[in-house]
Design brief:
Layout: H1 5-23, E1 32-40, E2 50-54, E3 68-74, E4 77-85, E5 89-98, E6 102-105, E7 115-118, E8 123-129, E9 132-134, E10 143-149, E11 161-164, E12 177-178, E13 180-182, E14 186-191, E15 198-204, E16 212-213, E17 223-226, E18 231-237, E19 240-241, E20 256-263, E21 273-279, E22 293-296, H2 315-324, E23 332-336, H3 342-345, H4 361-379, E24 389-394, H5 396-407, E25 414-418, H6 424-434, E26 443-451, H7 461-473, E27 482-491, H8 494-508
Helix pairs in contact: 2-8, 5-6, 6-7
């Protein structure tokens, strides 16, 4: 029996549609979820706090691991992004490892229960607040925490004290309880008093000559508070200081310093950043002379204490003195500011699970080589050839300097590999050296301090020696084109790198004889 023509056409159409649909590939199910963790910390959290999410699984560090590192975002927020397998239950807790070891506590001072998470979506966000931090076993009893907001005119290196009417406050001696720098541009400190203690106090910067004042410089009444014999916070807002009526001038920079502001990379995955440029003495006087260039990472930490995270390298003062004394060839130093994507940009390869966005050093390198360097060469009198161009940095900055130098010896030939993070991805940088089929013409400074931390992610002498030995095996000669230095007592900070920056310059850019 034949079908009526309209019915036949409908059947054929449905059959065609069904066949087309069956030919289309099914979408691939994403097995992992990109989870954004946003943690709001208590106002007394030190600004230099090192916070981790830790748990029993390997993803969160395991029983003996440090866990996933949270990054300070400003205000009272720390964040991280982790790639977690879907459908897997995780437990984790927030822990502080520095400046002291502490755990998250609830409002009553008991250790906070572990958080649980089972990710289901491709992207998820987890946000929570830590009430306070304290000892592993909890913290009960009296504890008065002072949170002091200071005005913008406060010097960046200010030291702030409380002085008041109790022995714990110095009986009005001008400087008794020194506060530490806390998050959200505050200072904080804790004192223990008996219950029902009547407090009167003021905030000073060390003496009555630098005591807090109103915005107009007038006296302010004593702050008062009666303690309750339990954990409590006292918030104070300082409006002015006795000795300061206008904002302090920016810290002086030594020599001729220029800026490129808000440089926008062509790759939209890279964030805009500032660039600071130090020019050698006589740059403006001798307009025919051209200069070698040293590019450096973490530019905000090099010359300007007002932008430095934890002190500066004093690059401008050191370079100025060495060039003027004839110990170093006159050169241009270019400091490239980092961004919140520092770990991603300074690492050559991914290193899951704790760093899901890592391994973007090649993208960062293309920005340096194809965009920033041509601009510097166009706007300043440089010697653009590779034999005059260097790259230097510390920690992950040392790692990325070594990696980019190995990959681009046609661009960079002088490398400052300072306290390098050789540990990254199971010493992958050593594997890069071992894979070389020919020794590139690189002059390399490598150093390490003997006290650069502990734990799985610490820079160690053993790691640095492994990199040194790999370089020597490929033909570098110690004290010739490879300078390897172990600094006894050297720590992993800007002060330590500042102390040896002069030696780094003398080796990489020695004065011409």
């Amino acid at each position: 029996m034949s079908l009526p023509r309209p019915t036949l056409l409908l059947v054929l159409a449905l059959t065609a549609l069904w066949g087309c649909a069956s030919d289309e590939p099914k979408p691939t199910e994403q097995l992992f979820s990109d989870v954004q963790f946003d943690v709001t910390v208590p106002p007394e959290t030190p600004v230099a706090a090192e916070l981790f999410l830790q748990g029993p699984s390997a993803t969160f560090g395991g029983a003996d691991g440090r866990g996933l590192a949270l990054v300070y975002q400003g205000g009272r927020q720390f964040s991280l992004k982790a790639r977690l397998p879907k459908g897997t239950a995780f437990t984790y807790a927030v822990r502080m490892t520095a400046p002291t070891a502490q755990v998250a506590l609830d409002a009553q001072g008991a250790p906070e229960p572990e958080h649980t998470l089972t990710a289901q979506e491709n992207e998820e966000r987890v946000a929570f607040t830590v009430e306070r931090f304290g000892a592993e076993g909890g913290q009960t009893g009296a504890r008065t925490v002072f949170i002091v907001q200071v005005p913008d005119i406060t010097p960046v290196d200010a030291r702030v004290w409380l002085s008041g009417n109790q022995p714990e406050l110095g009986n009005w001696n001008g400087a008794e309880v020194e506060l530490y720098k806390a998050v959200d541009n505050a200072y904080a400190g804790a004192v223990t008093f008996a219950a029902a203690t009547g407090l009167e106090f003021k905030v000073t910067r060390g003496s009555w000559d630098t005591v807090e004042k109103s915005e107009t410089g007038a006296e302010v009444a004593n702050h008062t508070f009666t303690t309750g014999g339990h954990f409590e916070r006292v918030s104070v807002g300082v409006k002015g200081w006795a000795d300061l009526t206008t904002p302090p001038p920016p810290p002086p920079l030594t020599g001729d310093v220029r800026y490129l502001r808000d440089v926008v990379p062509q790759d939209a995955t890279l964030k805009p950043r500032d660039v600071i440029i130090w020019l050698p003495p006589g740059y403006e006087a001798d307009t025919a002379r051209r200069y070698p260039v040293l590019y450096m990472h973490d530019g905000q930490n090099l010359m300007d204490v007002s932008t430095a995270f934890a002190g500066e390298w004093n690059v401008d003062e050191t370079a100025q003195a060495l060039v003027e004394s004839g110990q170093v060839e006159p050169l241009i130093i270019v400091g490239v500011y980092n961004t919140s994507d520092r770990i991603a940009e300074y690492t050559p390869v991914p290193f899951p699970p704790g760093y899901p966005d890592a391994g973007r050093a090649d993208v960062y390198g293309r920005f340096l080589i194809q965009e920033l360097k041509p601009r510097i060469d166009a706007e300043f009198r440089t010697k653009p050839q590779a034999e005059f161009t260097g790259l230097a940095g510390s920690s992950l900055g040392g790692l990325v300097s070594m990696s980019l130098g190995l990959k681009h010896p046609d661009v960079f030939t002088r490398l400052g590999v300072v306290s390098p993070s050789v540990w990254w991805a199971d010493r992958e940088i050593v594997a890069q050296v071992n894979a070389l089929t020919a020794k590139p013409a690189l002059r390399i400074w490598e150093d390490i301090g003997t006290q650069e931390g502990s734990g799985a992610e610490a820079e160690t002498v053993a790691d640095a020696q492994a990199l040194r030995d790999a370089l020597v095996a490929k033909g570098w000669v110690l004290d010739d084109d490879l300078k390897y230095t172990v600094v006894e007592g050297g720590q992993h900070n800007e002060a330590a790198w500042s102390a040896r920056f002069g030696d780094i310059l003398r080796f990489l850019y020695p004065a011409k004889q």
